[in-house]
Amino acid sequence: MSETATGSPNLADKAARVALMSGVAPEPGVAKPDPILSVDNIVRRFGGITAVDVGHLEVQRGIITALIGPNGAGKTTFFNLVTGFDRPSSGRAASWTFDGRSLSRTSASRVARAGMVRTFQLTKALNRMTVLDNMLLGAPGQTGERLLTSWLKPTWASQEREIRDKALSLLERFKLLEKRDDFAGSLSGGQRKLLEMARALMTDPTMIMLDEPMAGVNPALTQSLLGHIESLRDDGMTVLFVEHDMHVVRHISDWVVVMAEGKVVAEGTAESVMSQEAVIDAYLGAHHDTDLGDDSLLEDENFAAIEAEADQESESRA
Ligand SMILES: Nc1ncnc2c1ncn2[C@@H]1O[C@H](COP(=O)(O)OP(=O)(O)OP(=O)(O)O)[C@@H](O)[C@H]1O
Ligand SMILES: [Mg+2]
What we know:
By secondary structure, this protein is of the alpha/beta class.
């Protein structure tokens, strides 16, 4: 197993990730070797509905964790709560820490500054703004924004240049550079998802939470999105993503957390959770049409074929 200079496992290496998680029991709420996010007693009710009721959940640092569960399981509400976009109903009992610091009563912008960013199930790109301006909006509180004082102008200008350069290099990485001056509203569904991911990276997060990044994206772009998600992990980021397609989940997740009716009902590797009764019950109970069976449609070699096709397509477009 490869290790980094500090002696910690190199989690860009699959064998290291498998070894790291192999000692973790496939049980809801199980402790992780090195959790970056740890949540306790988070409850959110909407009228008579308990949308989220999570007793304890830890997210392991440096790997890709998939959060799955039938429609209405509470996945998006859970994202909203831990990222400060919503508040728990059990105000006092709820607590969660990110990277060792409490974030329980922290605003969304402070959560982002602490290093945890998220994207939205329905993309929040501002349609009547250019792609580049959408990126610049993603930058964390700039000096120019806070202090409109002219004596600070030199610092402000150099900071603005730095931010712009960063936005352009991210757009290049996500193959959106040529679109920089187009309105975000003119992008395809998949390109908007890429833009959202790129924008989230403007704050240099340590953890990124993606709510259905692949929904409504064509198969060719799905492959490229998956590649981007894996590269975030390989760069050392922690990824938590919501996904309904079990083939995608199997393909890129190092760990899977299953929610149903607001609770974490199972955890484990993709193989292990698919065979757990609680998971089968959750999906059957919800009359969900997710295929939990084994299907080679998106197995590795087919992924490679889709990837090659996507490359060809983007080359012919360029
Ligand atoms: N703002 C709200 N007001 C009232 N009820 C809400 C609100 N947001 C979510 N809910 C309810 O809370 C429950 C959980 O919803 P949530 O959107 O978190 O589920 P989800 O797992 O993300 O589902 P999906 O897979 O369809 O995106 C659902 O019953 C939903 O109707
Ligand atoms: Mg949702």
